[in-house]
Write a structure and sequence with these properties.
The structure holds two protein chains of two kinds. By secondary structure, chain A is of the alpha+beta class. In chain A, strands 5, 6, 7, 8, 9, 12, 13, 14 and 15 form a nine-stranded mixed beta sheet that branches. The longest helix of chain A has 16 residues. The mean pLDDT of chain A is 91. Chain B has one domain: Outer Surface Protein A, domain 3, CATH 3.90.930. In chain B, helix 1 crosses helix 2. The C terminus of chain B is likely disordered. Classes of the chains: A alpha+beta, B alpha+beta. The interface between A and B is medium-sized, with 14 and 13 residues.
Chain lengths: 245, 89
């Protein structure tokens, strides 16, 4: 058994016989609370994750459990996020799965704190982010599938600021022909319509659209960011975080 | 006909348009639909809703009101309900 802390909560994980313990501990190093916790007999079976025979499958199951536990408490975005190393100002880049969040995270988190590459949990009142520094799914060296899970320490990603807060919400759009990153501030309703499909359990929040409207106002809007390559965004996002900080 | 809001999780009105969040869907609706939903904060008769819209937008072409309500019902943002008690004779 392992105990992980992420999204401001904990989850018990049963590794079973199919998961290598050393590999798991390395991949989940930023979330690991106890490397060998005892099975909690009082814990209901649906409070525990696993066993799941593959690392990627286990990651997905852990994510689902964490989201379930914070349902109705956090605004949860399908997004990657990094934090400014000094101020904690953080940018959440929202995008559907498979559209470059992990690649961008690996670029940005070389110089900014790694918060997550998948689910950003935000307190709807304070704007504080509860990090989820999970392993990143990357393709094998041969570029194929299945993907492998690599921990943020192994990848050399920077540690998260101790008190990250949401400073910008960016909707990524990859445009291969873009010569340079292009920021466009979305109208309120356009922004809300774009963000809503990239949330988890939004309807469980109290007045969820009001929450999004409040963040839109506090953050000076939601932004669409068109780019060609992840490396093109390093300076652009750094400048944006410096500006809001 | 009497009308009330459907199972709407939340409603955001902005500059005469609105976004409606249902349990599994988010819809962006016109200014007329926004006016209907704002007015349906409490259940109303169809005639009251029609009169409210006419007071804002003027008389609608024949059949337009019924078509609008039909669309909103199909989208689950409005439901037809029984008579509104406060308007019963």
């Amino acid at each position: 058994m392992r105990t992980l802390r992420a999204l401001g909560t904990t989850v018990e994980v049963d590794l079973g016989d199919g998961i290598d313990e050393t590999e798991f501990d390395a991949a989940w190093s930023r979330c690991l609370l106890e490397s060998e916790s005892q099975e909690d007999e009082t814990l209901a079976s649906d409070e525990r994750v696993g066993p799941v025979p593959s690392m990627s499958g286990l990651t997905q199951a852990i994510t689902r459990q964490l989201i379930r536990k914070r349902r109705g408490e956090l605004l949860m975005l399908h997004a990657g996020a990094v934090s400014h190393p000094i101020t904690g100002a953080s940018v959440a880049y929202v995008a559907p799965g498979g559209t470059g969040k992990t690649t961008l995270t690996r670029v940005l988190a070389q110089s900014h704190g790694y918060l997550t590459d998948e689910t950003v949990g935000v307190d709807p009142v304070s704007g504080e982010i509860s990090p989820y520094p999970k392993p990143l799914s990357t393709r094998t060296p041969e570029g194929g599938f299945p993907k492998i899970e690599r921990g943020p320490d192994e990848l050399g990603l920077q540690a998260a600021h101790p008190a990250p807060w949401l400073a910008a919400v960016v909707l990524l759009r990859r445009v291969p022909a873009a010569h340079e990153p292009r920021w466009t501030r979305l109208d309120l309703l356009d922004g809300v319509m774009a963000v809503v499909p990239e949330t988890s359990s939004l309807s469980a929040l109290d007045r969820p659209l009001q929450v999004l409207q409040d963040f839109y106002g506090r953050l000076g809007g939601f932004w669409r960011l068109e780019y060609a390559e992840a490396t093109d965004l390093r300076e652009s996002i750094t400048a944006r975080l410096e500006a809001v900080a | 006909m009497s009308l009330e809001r459907g199972p709407i999780v939340d409603l955001l009105v902005h500059e005469d348009e609105c976004v409606v969040l249902l349990e599994n869907e988010c819809l962006r609706l016109s200014s007329v639909a926004a006016a209907v939903l704002e007015f349906l904060e409490v259940p109303r008769s169809g005639d009251d809703v029609r009169g409210h819209l006419e007071s804002i937008f003027g008389p609608a072409p024949a059949g337009r009101f019924e078509s609008l309500i039909s669309d909103l019902v199909q989208q689950d943002v409005v439901v037809s309900a029984g008579p509104v008690r406060s308007e019963d004779p």
